[in-house]
Amino acid sequence: MPNGHRVQETTARDVAAAMSAIDRRRFLPRNQRPYARDDRPLPIGHGQTNSQPRTVADTLRLLQVPRGARVLDVGSGSGWTTALLAHLVGPGGSVVGVEIDPDLAEWGASNLASYPMSWARIEVAEPGLLGRPTMGGYDRILVSAAAQVLPQELVDQVAIGGRLVIPVQHVLVLVEQHLTGTVTSRHGTYSFVPLIGS
């Protein structure tokens, strides 16, 4: 995070503002757009969904995304969560979304491009690699698909002082990376598509 200073973390109001600013309709197939305001997951093809808004809000509040943070969005799908994260970090931060399905990644990137947020991008995930390792790690990592076990390779990509939110067997798990070690906590049960490669 910028200059190593502690910055204000996301509040429930920040998350609500982001979800108001980023129109879910833009991240849905045309035949699903009439249902954009429904609080339920909606199909986007390729066996994937655009997640239930209440679930997305819960994960973002738990992630506590600061302004200026470096964020990784694993399983970016339609690009909606990547756009929400980009709104939260602002132009001083950076967000990279990774998506295993090349067609979905391309579509998600085009959806994301409908907003002027040059600090966010979506890329095709590398086969056999979870996440996108980078020097120094990420301040926040959001995973929108359920792993069978907590993937150590994603934990290793969290910077000191950072957070990872990931469903593990549909239980939402928060991982906090401290100088003294890793702390995990469980935060309710949700339904997610499977995380490929976990």
Automatic annotation (TrEMBL):
Keywords: Cytoplasm, Methyltransferase, S-adenosyl-L-methionine, Transferase. The keyword Chaperone does not apply. Its EC number is 2.1.1.77. InterPro entries: PCMT (IPR000682), SAM-dependent_MTases_sf (IPR029063). It holds the Pfam family PCMT. GO terms for cellular component: cytoplasm. It is an enzyme of class 2 (transferase). Residues 28-53 are annotated as: Disordered. It is found in: Cytoplasm. GO terms for biological process: methylation. GO terms for molecular function: protein-L-isoaspartate (D-aspartate) O-methyltransferase activity. The keyword S-adenosyl-L-methionine applies. PANTHER family: PROTEIN-L-ISOASPARTATE O-METHYLTRANSFERASE, PROTEIN-L-ISOASPARTATE(D-ASPARTATE) O-METHYLTRANSFERASE. Belongs to the methyltransferase superfamily. L-isoaspartyl/D-aspartyl protein methyltransferase family. This is Protein-L-isoaspartate O-methyltransferase. It comes from Oerskovia enterophila. The gene is pcm.
